[in-house]
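Recap for those who missed Tuesday's class. We walked through two folding examples back to back. For each one, the amino acid string is listed first and its predicted structure tokens come directly after. Nothing is annotated here on purpose, so try labeling regions yourself before you check the end of the notes.
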Amino acid sequence: MSLSLAGLIAIAAIVAMLLSGRVSPLVAFVLVPIVAALVTGFGIDDIATFYEQGFARVIPVAVMFVFAILFFGILQDAGLFEPIIRKVLSVSRGNVVSITVATALVASIAHLDGSGATTFLLTIPALLPTYQRLRMSPYLLLLLVGLGASIMNMLPWAGPLARIGSVLGMSPGELWQPLIPLQIFALVLLLALAVVLGLRENRRIKRLPPLASHASQDDAASGATIQETADAQPVAKVPGWKMAFNAFLLIAVVAALTVDVLPPALVFMIGVALALPVNITHMDGQMQSIKRHAPNALIMATIIIAAGTFLGILNGSNMLSELSADIVAILPAAVVPYMHILIGIFGVPFDLILSTDAYFFAFLPIVVEVVGNAGVPAVSTAYAMVIGNIIGTFVSPLAPAVWLALQLAGLEMGKHIRYSFGIMWGFSLVLLLFGYLIGAITL
């Protein structure tokens, strides 16, 4: 069997296995490439060498991911983000536009740890009663939370950049630096969109028939609801000096990642080592904190390490380069240099049919190789694909966190896609254009 055909079958098999939901990504990323290597004539020693090459490429990213989740989990347990979220909720005072803006802000803050499940657990139960009381669409809530979380998903300790770093052999912090202006622009754009959607929602509510039981109480109740939501779950009193230390530590860690003075994994290791004794004085409590957050950390780390096997074998065996050469030979010459742009444009629709792992671990390496033959830098290809795709993360039925959000809000996936898909796709296209204007994406 030719290397090109074996690589194509291996990638197709992995994508099919991931989409089926019948096996863990770890199973697909380990077994399929090993079988492909054996079928094409490579021996055990060759496979071991390929594995070692792939492992060396991804282990810094896996370690960073483990300690990043531990770090943000400790700060979240310490209540660092709660006062900010509660304050944002309390100042909106029942105004529809203020609530949509507050939703965007709260979602962005809640997703600082890079976990979609945590974001939805923090935001939807807190905000849904207000949306219901004011007769606002809960699908608008899910849309705004999804957009805010998607933008913050560009952070280096979130999943997408960690996956890209594994594929390209680059530090996620290094990948993140050119995206900082785009991320700031995206947050500003989100707030502007929240205002527009809030005004549209206000007009829709005014066209609804009045509810007699609520009509005389709307003004008082709507403002009270926000305050009640903000006060519903009081946070244990944390000493001011401890809050100040945690805030300073967070700023220091983000600053160190931004200027890239140390490897990201070491930055988060130091952050965890400082945060644990300050916030938890006893060793038993510190170990319990690590155990509490370790499952989430280890799940992602094992997937990244397993993907290292897949990437190591496909690269080391030349399956990937042979496959890309055949694709270039088939495609019209005029299309090849722009393939990454075309895929970026259709990134959000791809989210409906490809899981995140399949998109970045199986799809990205092929595109990097194909457009690389036309002289396009690998990092530019990665930026086009992540910017075009990342906004659609939380409208995809393949994202487990979305199903959690739907369950929390009592909503339907089909209606969520119809409500949010067009807006999310348009949002991603604007970001893709901005990425080109600032030079992150090149032709």
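Example two. Treat it independently of the first, because the proteins are unrelated.
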Amino acid sequence: MENITVIGGGAAGMMAAISAAKSGHEVLLIEKNEKLGKKIYITGKGRCNVTNACDFDEFQRSIVTNSRFMFSSLRGFFNDDLMAMIEEAGCPLKTERGDRVFPVSDKASDITKALERILRELKVRIRLNTEVKELIKRAPSNSDSEGSFEIRCEGKTGKPEIYLSKNVIVCTGGLSYRTTGSTGDGYRFAEEYGHEIKEPVPALVPLTLLENDAKDMQGLSLRNIEIRISPIRDEKATIYSDFGEMLFTHFGVSGPVILSASSYITNALRDGERFVLHIDLKPALSPEKLDERILRDFSENINKNFENSISKLYPLKLIPVIIKRSGIDPHKKVNSISKKERERLISVTKDLSFTITGTRDFNEAIITQGGISVKDINPKTMESKKVKGLYFAGEVLDIDAKTGGFNLQLAFSTGYAAGRYAGE
């Protein structure tokens, strides 16, 4: 009988196995895929934004759901601990803009290889191509006073396999990137033992827009812009704001600031709420400074039509939308454009707005929002409050954060806590 069995070989699962083995336990790691860390390979566009190097307070502010629950596990294993572990395992790291941490090689596979080296050194047993079908808590006996778990699996050949374990750590992920094996198995295991499941929804996911002119800008990437999300019923209110990069697509918008924004509104969207996306194309310029800039551009193109005079101010794909939204005749000579017309142009530039109608589905979501309610989980140990010896870690829990390496750190920190305390 194993002392600790970890189900799921992603970020949380590998770290749980490492932490448990470092605590002196015999550990079995079961993974349904043909290799460990399959989702890690595709994070950060194949580069793996493994964590964020910001300070503790800023990290806490970047957690969208259940930040207070994460306090203990982050204190126990934070970004500096993770970075030291990975670098000691032979994978040097670098910190880029926004405190995002990547392997120097820009290869996500190097992160997985580093963790695999640690697993091998700690003699963790690994079973690949093995899917857990049932997780059964056995009744206590004379030789087993607290009861153990029977883990019924199906191997690559389709033959049944059964493992017995005193403690089980479930790290099966959420529902995003289903091709990596995230099919919601952990929710089923938890529900069978009476845990509440917060409805899983796509998060860090592109947004769909109502207006057709958004589609006209498909492929347009905007940098150094500021966004603000407001409810359609009160456009002066701010649900979320951010500065950075975004991208127009055939259905709406994506990019770092959009993905982070989605996590703050996805549940409300599911409930029928509608929101407005406000884009400030020139956040560094006040309306007065922007007017000066427009007048300067006009003076350099004094005999040109309006449509041919603003190419220095806006990207090519954006110009037709700006013209349409400003209501200025594209063929009007710039020397006859009125102050009132310039004010409309400034208004559109500082607040290019679109109606958000929804999100894309799990196939395009980076993470899952929702999952096992943290009310049922001990925040220090990750042990179930309902079943002795059963632990949960990573995305299977109802925890999530913004983009920038925060979500992987949540997985590593909860995995580390579960492995550390399992079997005590």
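Answers for example two:
The domain at 2-201+370-421 is CATH 3.50.50.60 (FAD/NAD(P)-binding domain).
The chain has a mean pLDDT of 94.
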